[in-house]
Amino acid sequence: MVNQLARLTEISVTLNSTLEIKPLLQFIVQTATQVLDCEEASIMLYDEQRGELLFTASSNSTEELAQIPVPLEGSIAGTIFRENRAIFIADVEKDPRHFAQVGEQINFRPKTLLGVPMLMRDKVTGVLEGLNKRNGAFTQKDAYLLSIIASQAAVALNNARLHTEIQNAYDELSRVDKIKSDFMAIASHELRTPLGVILGYATFLKEDAQGELSSHADMVLTSALKLRSLVEEMTNMNLLRVGTVDLQKSPSIIQQIIARAYEEISSTAKAKGQTVAVDLPKQPLRVLVDPAKIERVFSNLLNNAVRFTPNGGKISIKTFVKNNEAWTQINDTGIGIPTAELKKIFQEFYQVEDHMTRRFGGMGLGLAIAKGIVDTHEGRIWAESEGVRMGSTFYVVLPVATQ
Question: What's the pLDDT tens digit per position in 238-285?
Fold first, then answer.
């Protein structure tokens, strides 16, 4: 008995460490054959869609038995499954429930049989059978040992299935992710040529046109420039995704970077009657960054602050040193961010507003690009907000240049 308990422990360890379904099935039936000292063992798992048991593995004839259906009514395995109990058969061929098709399929003559249900959280998921005891008849001790193996096997198979499902889901996500990257790369590339033509002609028309025609040309040019900005966002996002961003790092004064980003939004903020307070250190604060790309980060954040803050609102920009890092805090009195969305807003194409009813434009790439750029600089970026209509605060933390 001690040897058998040791064997069960060994079986348990192996079952819990195997996540490939085919090797796992073969290990179960081979183990059952050895423990019971019988000629054959087989597993039948319940197919919920078909409402039948399917032969899934056999110790000697896996290929021939694979996927043979066994009815729940009128079969020994079906009885074990339905009644959730072990069954001993001293002469299988004389039992009216014997499903002869299986033996005929593999040219195997069953004599004695022991079958037990496979339980997973009190739910029967299949049947494990041993056939033709080599010496004598199957005993209650055999049933006890086989039931332990069957229960361990049910758990192991469930874990293997979950692992396979997770892997399949991961593979599908990877495939979709690649499609998205390919789409952004192709779309941004294909749009550049016609967009360049439109911009060229729109600029030409705007310079030469007069009156109403000039106004129309101006609208075309403005729309084309907006489209070019979207194309650039797609290109930048794709470069970040594939890790091909070329950083030209140099010790740069962060006050100058923020000042250039502020210039981009100052006229829009003024037109909306917004107050922008800027609080930067008096002494030059150098950070080791690619200045053009970090300027893009602050431009995106400030554009968002202006866009999502109502007329007459307030925006503040503050930079300070903390723990040998340059912290920049951009605060606004705008629409705010629901707490549950604070981390999601940095995902690609994610927008808090529903795409069918949203009031604000954009593709939802600005913050994703900002995060990607900051991450490549080994910095940090995050948002804080007390909720809707409570304003937002964005933080960008970058390493201070040591030289």
Answer: 656 655 567 889 999 999 999 999 998 898 899 899 999 999 999 999
Identify whether residues 162 and 186 lie together within a single domain: no
Long-range CB contacts (< 8 A, 24+ apart) of 236-244? Answer: 236/296, 236/365, 236/369, 237/184, 237/348, 237/365, 237/368, 237/369, 237/372, 238/181, 238/184, 238/185, 238/188, 240/369, 240/372, 240/373, 240/376, 241/181, 241/184, 241/372, 242/181
Looking at the fold, whether 115 and 210 belong to one and the same domain comes out as no
What is the average per-residue pLDDT within 357-373?
A: 70
Which has more pLDDT, 305 or 229?
305
140, pLDDT greater than 60:
yes
Residue at a domain's end among 194, 218, 241: 241
The answer to whether residue 196 sits within a structural domain is yes
**172 within a domain of the structure (yes/no):** no
Round to whole Å and give the CA distance between 392 and 341: 12
**SS3 per-residue string spanning 308-350:** CCCCCCEEEEEEEEECCEEEEEEEECCCCCCHHHCCHHHCCCC
Task: Give the number of domains in the chain.
Answer: 3
Whether residue 392 is found in the same domain as residue 266: yes
CA distance 98 to 115: 12
User: Is 43 found in the same domain as 142?
Assistant: yes
pTM above 0.85, yes or no: no
- Would you state the structure tokens that stand for residue 80, as one six-digit string? 């074990």
Quote the domain boundaries for residue 277.
250-399
